[in-house]
Amino acid sequence: MASFTLVDVAVVKGRETEFADRSKTNFLASRKEAGNLRFDVLQSRDDPAKFVLVEIYGSPDDVKAHKETVHYLEWREGVADMMATPRKGVQCTCHFPSEPSALLGFWNTEPCGWLPGAMDLTLETASSCSWHLSRCQLCKLGNKSIRYSPLPYIVAVFNCSLWVYYCVITMETTNQDLTPNGLINAAGALLEICYVLVFIRYSRERASVIYQALVAIGLFWTCILFFEVVLPLLPDWNKHWDFHWGGADVPLKSSLCGVVTDVLNVALYGSPLVVMGTVIRTRSVKYMPLPLSVFTCLQSLLWFVQGSLLGNVTVWLPNALGIILGAVQLIIYAMFCRSTPEARDVENSLTLSPSCVSTQPLAAASA
């Protein structure tokens, strides 16, 4: 994580020529680049690690191509709320959906039309770390998450945990070795729990996130209670219902659990396709990250091979569907990747409002 300290200085009035004069005393004017953005910076001559990010020019293509999208509008609204009640040490972050590289932050000294003018704010620290890992970014804006639902992550915790349970009960009653499946899904469950905790930490609707998490926990333990307590009390089911999902030697409990995990797994594999309408309408694939689609195909292919070697339909069937869903995502990406607006096409004259900018990426994976 890169960490930078913004020095305590008064707001510099005017444009670039005026703060170039100021830089002759304590600061050195320079221009830095971070991802698709360019920053005009006043860097301390005494301590190079301290600088004031003065103005930002250009922005990711989201702003030009989709100025009226809810992401941009909520970002403006959030910054306006922050500026309405300035306080020392205020930090906020900005949502740039298509920006996978690290951003620093900026200090804007020029009044904007939708704000009452540049305000005397002291931003004491700014840190950013952006790493595009997988299907979704969770960004915080003024200590709130922006229209990202925690539900996919909560469902992923449910799915991975149920896979661990399935592997344990199946290995207890059969000779199938599902140790890799269990270990990988255990790691995935821990990772997804971390993501849910991030949602809880930064969401203003914290109670709603906690409620959804508690519902998922309740559903998980309801399933466990059914498989471990209720199902054994129904001997006729085991006697008369010849249902062996996952292999001829797989008992009913494992078979039913496998069906539930398969449904959840297919839903998670196909989750990037929920933005297909947006991709087709905007002719832009920035909301459909390529790494996720590639690894969906690759992961599905590997698990499909493993499931086929084991002869376990619970493993190979959802991953066969995952290969198809991943291929559909890659086809859609290939169709619209060339029509996605480039960052260089963005108007360089656009100046945004004061804030510290950082993006916090999150990844969600299921085996």
UniProtKB/TrEMBL annotation:
The keyword Ribonucleoprotein does not apply. It holds the Pfam family ABM. InterPro entries: ABM_dom, Dimeric_a/b-barrel, SWEET, SWEET_rpt. SUPFAM superfamilies: Dimeric alpha+beta barrel (SSF54909). Residues 3-96 form the ABM domain. Keywords: Cell membrane, Membrane, Repeat, Sugar transport, Transmembrane, Transmembrane helix, Transport. It is a multi-pass membrane protein. Its main location: membrane. GO terms for molecular function: sugar transmembrane transporter activity. Gene3D superfamilies: 1.20.1280.290, 3.30.70.100. One of its GO terms (cellular component) is plasma membrane. The chain crosses the membrane at residues 151-171, 183-202, 209-234, 254-275, 287-304, 316-336. It is found in: Cell membrane. The keyword Transport applies. Belongs to the SWEET sugar transporter family. This is ABM domain-containing protein. It comes from Polarella glacialis.
